[in-house]
Amino acid sequence: VRVGASRGPKLGYPLQGVIVEINSEKTVISKDMPATVLQGVAAMVASRLNVQKGIESVVLEPLALLRVVVPEQYVGPVISDLTSTQKRGEIHDVSTDLTSKDKSIILAKVPLNSLVGYSSYLRSISRGEGTFSIDVNDYGVVNEENMS
Fold first, then answer.
1. Is this structure's pTM higher than 0.70?
2. Where is 147: in which H helix or E strand?
């Protein structure tokens, strides 16, 4: 079953959070069967999981908690970029940096793959004054239009 769940029905990513329950009185699988046959059966079961009993499968992506510190004049462009359709971020908080009154802290949750190259972008937009840190702490469902 583990081998069958290692390649899921959507995009081939491993299945997560699956509970397998065998509800049959017939003995179809024997301990004497070759491993390749058992793997094939497990793969077949895993590929049918999303069509049986109304089970829906989804693709998850890692989400990063992003903390951006920029001078106040760059808050608008940074927020605009983070909430764009390319970044798909959600702003959680904007506050003044207590250690430097002319800077703001932006907290956002952003898909991790949207942050590739973010360091260069932030340096460019903030004229080298912006900094950021990320902490991957969650997973979110990928919308169909973002799967590619």
1. no
2. none
